[in-house]
Amino acid sequence: MSRTRDWPLYVVMAVVILFLLSPLIVVVGASVTTSSFLEFPPRGFSLKWFEEVLGQEVWTTTLITSVKLAVVSMAIATVVGIPCSIALARGDFRGRAAITAFVLSPLMVPSIVLAISLLIIYSRTGIDLPFWRLALAHGVLTAPYLIRTLTAALEQVDSSLEEAARNLGATPVGAWLRVVLPTVRPALIAAMFFAFIMSFDELVVALFLSGPRLTTLPMQIYGEIQYNLSPAIAAVSTLLIFLTVAGVLVIERVLGVRRLVR
Predict the structure, then answer these.
(1) pTM, rounded to two decimals
(2) Mind listing the pLDDT tens digit for each residue in 138-187?
(3) Averaged over 98-126, what is the pLDDT?
(4) In the chain, where the domains are located
(5) What is the rounded average pLDDT of the residues 31-60?
(6) d(CA 74, CA 87)
(7) Helix (H), strand (E), coil (C) string for 37-48
């Protein structure tokens, strides 16, 4: 009887899920069209746009560039974020709230403001290494996501466990690596993936700081949308969707999505 009364709720849930998935359906459908224009529903069925994307060096080059940039930015955010998270979660010092607000400020500052500020800094300091200045900028953008996620996880860990390890002879670093890190490892992995995804998908800062010698995948897609609205854009997006789904399945297989969410 209860299931009968709950059917309107199931209908609403199905409509909401369909609405959320509709952009993905449109993108995948537009990627297999035989037409030369980006349209939905597709005309016929063809994989020629995937062949074109995989056969053009510009797409593979920009994809590799974006992956390298995301990996380096994720590493920078991790190196900076772990000590900050430990200090914010374990420290009890004056000005902690102000420091927390400062560290997380890139989350509140518009990307274009941050991009212009970094462009002025790089121009005055004479830094002319497009990849590394963009990697540092992405590290600034992604570090708050890692810090916020990891700090929340560290605050849930009982500090007495770390104290017990130190009483048994472990150094502060050893206690963190052997006791605390295994406990917060799912949260750390989730935070690193946040940093990777945010860097990989970032466009505004890249437009200001990349220069003519460096093009990321979002920049290439943006340029194609402006000057050449072809189904190749949908094909690239479809490939990214399937790669994302594959990554989630691998995480589920190795660690479990539920653990990462917790």
Answers:
(1) 0.79
(2) 888 888 888 888 888 887 777 777 777 777 777 777 777 777 777 777 77
(3) 81
(4) 2-261
(5) 80
(6) 20
(7) CCCCCCCCCCCH
Question: From CA 140, how far away is CA 107, in angstroms rounded?
Answer: 10
Residue from 189, 192, 191, 167 nearest 179 by CA: 167
Count the Cβ atoms, other than its own, within 10 Å of residue 205.
21
Q: Which of 67, 55, 72, 62 is nearest to 133 (CA)?
A: 72
Q: Which CATH class name applies to 2-261?
A: mainly alpha
How far apart (Å, rounded) are the C-alpha atoms in residues 56 and 16?
37
Half-sphere exposure of 203 (CA within 13 A, CB side): 8
Backbone angles phi, psi at 188, to 5 degrees: -65, -40
- Using one digit for the tens of pLDDT, what is the confidence trace for 201-255? 888 888 888 777 788 888 888 888 877 777 888 888 888 888 877 777 776 666 6
Answer yes or no: are the C-beta atoms of 33 and 42 closer than 8 Å. yes
Mean pLDDT to the nearest integer, 38-67: 82
